[in-house]
Write a structure and sequence with these properties.
307 residues; alpha/beta; Multidrug-efflux Transporter Regulator, Chain: A, Domain 2; Methyltransferase, Methionine Synthase (B12-binding Domains), Chain A, domain 1; Rossmann fold; 3 domains; disordered N terminus
């Protein structure tokens, strides 16, 4: 039988390499070593072969040190603080100044520890001064960008990533549900949101759906891994369609030109059809005006502004 408690205990990361700390905090390993030697800020354990490893408390302390340093505290002054004073200073600054960095650090801790309570308390604190859209743009998106890199460098496991993204999705879906009460615009334009074959990263697409619904547009959310051919059925139901997709991992970069060409031939023959594309896979793709009905956006914010 699957034991949830055992799973959480076994997956909570309690030891970190200096490279892990660099990836998680953005502080270079060389700098961490200097802070250790010069200011005695961290006390790593060492293996039999003299390799540093750091505890969860060390990771948390370094996040707090980084936050104070980014908010004007010199390292020499931080080193003079007692151990218990550091988180107190962090809370003081976070309560009266820009809180995004503190929130991102707190959500990282929630992810590392699979701590749902910390996730929700951090989110609810943000809601006191920010709208949901502001939280998504200033906290969730930067964190998601970091999480992708952390996963690629084996600093975190897929379980950590899934823990965080599931809770983010819940917030998007909850806020989207609330929009059902809004009076919709007359149905003239329909947005069809889908992910291509094998693509499963749907947070960006879910948020675009939320934004479009908030503006009163008619949307159809199809979700993950939708074959291109199955989209043709929609052409019989709606006169004006804008397809929206997000390429995070798929299609592969070398396959994207053929994908766009085939999509234009198959689905954009009608006058009132368009394709909007986003995602890191598209960062080096140039359309060179070959497909006037296809637009690549470099951010969700720019797509929404362009409507």
């Amino acid at each position: 039988m699957f034991n949830v408690k055992s799973f959480l205990v076994n997956n909570i990361k309690v030891n970190f390499s200096i490279k892990d700390l660099e990836n998680l905090t953005g502080i270079k390993a060389h700098t961490i070593r200097i802070w250790e030697k010069r200011y005695n800020l961290l006390s790593p354990n060492r293996s039999d072969t003299n390799i540093r490893n750091y505890s969860l408390l060390s990771f948390q302390k370094l996040l707090n040190i980084s936050f104070l340093n980014n908010n004007g505290f010199k390292i020499s002054k931080i080193a003079e603080l007692d151990e218990e004073q550091i988180p107190i200073k962090v809370r003081e600054i976070a309560s009266r100044r820009k809180v995004e960095d503190h929130a991102i650090n707190a959500l990282k801790m929630a992810m590392i520890n699979f701590d749902q309570v910390l996730f929700y308390s951090t989110y609810n604190n943000l809601l006191e001064n920010k709208t949901f859209s502001e939280i998504f743009y200033s906290v969730f998106l930067p964190l998601l960008n970091e999480i992708g890199l952390l996963w690629q460098t084996n600093t975190i496991t897929p379980a950590h990533e899934h823990f965080l993204t599931v809770h983010m999705k819940q917030k998007i879906l909850l806020n989207t549900e609330r929009l059902q009460l809004l009076e919709p615009k007359p149905v003239s334009k329909t947005f069809v949101l889908y992910l291509p074959d094998n693509e499963i990263h749907d947070i960006g697409l879910l948020f675009i759906n939320y934004q479009l619904r908030g503006k009163g547009y008619h949307t159809i959310f199809l979700g993950e891994s939708v074959p291109m051919e199955s989209l043709t059925d929609l052409l019989d139901f709606f006169d004006e369609i804008t397809f929206v997709s997000y390429f995070t991992v798929y299609p592969l970069v070398q396959e994207i030109p053929d994908y766009i060409k085939k999509f234009n031939e198959l689905l954009l023959k009608k006058d009132n059809t368009k394709l909007f594309l986003l995602g890191k896979q598209l960062s080096d793709i140039q359309l060179n005006n070959l497909y006037p009905k296809t637009t690549i956006f470099n951010s969700i914010e720019n797509l929404i502004k362009d409507l």
